[in-house]
Amino acid sequence: QDLICLGMSQWVQVFSDAALSSGMTEVVVGQRSVLLSRQTDGSVAAVDGRCGHRGGPLALGDIEDGVVLCPWHDRRFCSRTGREIIARGCGPAMQRVHHVEVRDGAIFVRLSSAGSFPSDSFSVVDSHDPSPRRCPPPKSTLEVLLEQESLRATGSPSGTPPRPYETSKDSRSEPYVSDEFLF
Q1: Which residues of 59-93 are buried (b: 16+ CB within 10 A; e: fewer)?
Q2: CA distances from 136 to 25, 54, 67 (A)
Q3: pLDDT digits over 154-163, tens only?
Q4: CB 116: neighbour CB atoms within 10 A?
């Protein structure tokens, strides 16, 4: 089903409740990436779809007991509160949490604008193109698993192993870290 994602202060129908099953998916609302996730109690939560740490695509990560794992740097977030899960409990809120409702078999999202969150820096998509966006179709389980395996095997979303160390051009020939790979 093709849904045009519009507005930022209104409720927008973004996905079918039945299609979400027990996992998570990324949708676009306005020009913002939003991660929808099914909770253990059957409800749905909505947070920014890109990690507040460095912008990793959370939909390619894992979710267990309401905790989302970023596929890039293993950061963990509570999908209901947006708070980072750390060894000593909950850390600061990293992900903006959006309003979500399920009505007549459809999931509706209203974007939150209160406060400032690290995920704000990464979750706006195509900010130079104001035209309406079509919500991306949900990925099949096989597509997600293949992307996750490629990311785990190579350490790079593109499937090409990163080469963070290069040899400097001076006579010392000491390795240095290329700016391209600093996180």
Answers
A1: bbbbbeebebbbbbeebbbbbeebbbbeeeeeeeb
A2: 9, 22, 23
A3: 665 555 555 5
A4: 10
Q: What is the pTM of this model?
A: 0.64
Q: Taking a C-beta distance cutoff of 8 angstroms, is the pair 97, 58 a contact?
A: no
Q: Is the dihedral angle over the CA atoms 143, 145, 146, 147 positive or is it negative?
A: positive
| Tens digits of residue pLDDT in 57-76 | 999 999 999 999 999 988 89
Question: How many other CB atoms are there within 10 angstroms of residue 44's CB atom?
Answer: 19
Q: Report the greatest alpha carbon distance in the chain.
A: 69
Alpha-carbon gap, residue 35 to 55, rounded angstroms: 13
The two structure tokens encoding residue 1:
């089903």
User: Are the C-beta atoms of 72 and 181 separated by less than 8 Å?
Assistant: no
On whether the CB atoms of residues 98 and 123 are closer than 8 A, the answer is: no
